[in-house]
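[agent] plan:
  1. take the single chain provided in the ticket
  2. run structure prediction with default settings
  3. attach structure tokens to the ticket
  4. add a short note for the reviewer (M.T.)
[agent] executing step 1
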Amino acid sequence: MKRLYYLLVYLVFALPLMTISCKQNNEDKSLLPSDIVNNPNSAEGKIDTDLPVIQFENDFYDFGRIIQGEKVSFGFKFTNKGKSDLIISKVSTSCGCTVTDFPKTPIKPGESNKIEVKFDSENRRGFQNKTITVLSNSQPSTTLLRIKAQVVLPEDISK
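[agent] step 2 finished; step 3 output follows
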């Protein structure tokens, strides 16, 4: 009798809950269509030489000493050195105090653009090191950028 009760509870509550939670949401329009993403890695070992190549002028920027509460920004300039369109699909940061703005349209071979990184030092103090992860259709598909700053209180700026 007890087993029947547990089976009934499982069928009535757990099974429908799992079914609902596993549904895929195909409404996300920010995802790239799969036909424009080219993954050159294969078990055959073939190398695709027509890939986009993202090349940054700098992958690191030091803001130096900044006053707590100050908002600073830097544009990481890059060029597509490859032979096909470069598509940046996502740029993420290691902290909520850092936000980015990046091009949403394809970058043609030879063209340049930038990823704008803004750091808000509100409620921060001391040395800050933040990482920005750039995902694109280049090979390798992940590029890491870094920023750093020393956040000081206004009364400590003269020291």
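[agent] step 4 note for reviewer: Helices lie at 2-21.
[agent] ticket updated
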